[in-house]
Design goal:
It is a single chain. The protein is built from six helices and two strands, in the order H-H-E-E-H-H-H-H. The protein has one domain.
Length: 123
């Protein structure tokens, strides 16, 4: 839960680097929250069956859009890539697969153009 809160504290910080843990724990907790909110939407009757999105879950997803983009950019910085690579997700099918491949890679050792290695800072 601390990783999730850490990402929210850095709401719109697109500089620096983020560990794999920071990104993937944020992703996991975010997924669980959205799933729970979709159940709430279903119980409230605000879930649109065609789109699979409801009012409450939509508001939450809108609120965490910017922190999600920011942590993805920082994660890309951690492997030495520009944050612009996040736009790969806009290419159908192959783009998200390539982006996931980038996001699961280990950190670049030492400092890079985006700052010091967060693994070495916490070790």
């Amino acid at each position: 839960m601390n990783w999730y809160l850490e990402v929210l504290k850095k709401y719109a910080v697109f500089t620096g680097r983020a560990h794999r843990k920071e990104y993937w724990y944020y992703f996991l907790i975010n997924f669980l929250i959205i799933t729970a909110l979709l159940l709430v939407d279903n119980m409230l009757g605000t879930l649109d069956k065609e789109t699979g999105v409801g009012l409450v879950s939509s508001l939450y997803m809108l609120a965490v859009l910017l922190p999600g983009l920011a942590v993805a950019v920082r994660r890309l910085h951690d492997i030495g890539r520009s944050g612009w690579w996040v736009l790969l997700s806009l290419i159908p099918i192959i783009g998200p697969i390539i982006l996931i491949f980038f996001l699961i890679q280990d950190s670049m050792p030492g400092d890079n153009a985006y700052g010091p290695n967060p693994k070495e800072a916490t070790a």
